[in-house]
Amino acid sequence: MITLAMREDIEEIAALFQQAKAQMLRDNILQWHQAYPNLKHIAKDIIDQKCYKLVKNDEIVSVASFYQEGNTYWIKRFATTPSYTKCGYASQLYQHLENLGVVRQAEKICSVTNHSNQKMQKFFLKQGFHKDAEYEDASRKNCGKFYVFCKNLEVSKHDASSRTR
Questions:
Q1: I need a surface site. Which of 22, 39, 64, 157 has the fewest CB within 10 A?
Q2: Are residues 147 and 131 in contact, defined by beta-carbon separation less than 8 angstroms?
Q3: DSSP code of 5?
Q4: Tens digit of pLDDT for each residue in 3-42?
């Protein structure tokens, strides 16, 4: 089941992120570090109703933050419990978020990943994203380049015409 995360989920999501960080470290992925993401990021996403969770057998197995900037929705802090990767849960959560974007008439969905995170790059390409840009974050030079992946969403003619009314 996919729902918005609640305040009582903070510790479980933090534990999921710790597992994901440990896996990233083992895989030499330079994207996250001990201080990011942290409890403050999780709590803010939950309070702002931006954090979505996928629950399987009473356990949160995948999470992502989803928020709007203009006509674009952004996915951040997207993670799956390492023992549940390759089970399709990230794809299920992503599909749910894409559907929300379509219902909310977003023009596109974007996300950022590190050059070293081949798994996320492959995931985004599999979901129909394209690499839109790359940059270096001055505050995180040791991480190298970051890639922006975007996917244009199709808004039906009926939905588009209702926007002009």
A1: 157
A2: yes
A3: -
A4: 999 999 999 999 999 999 999 999 999 899 888 999 999 9
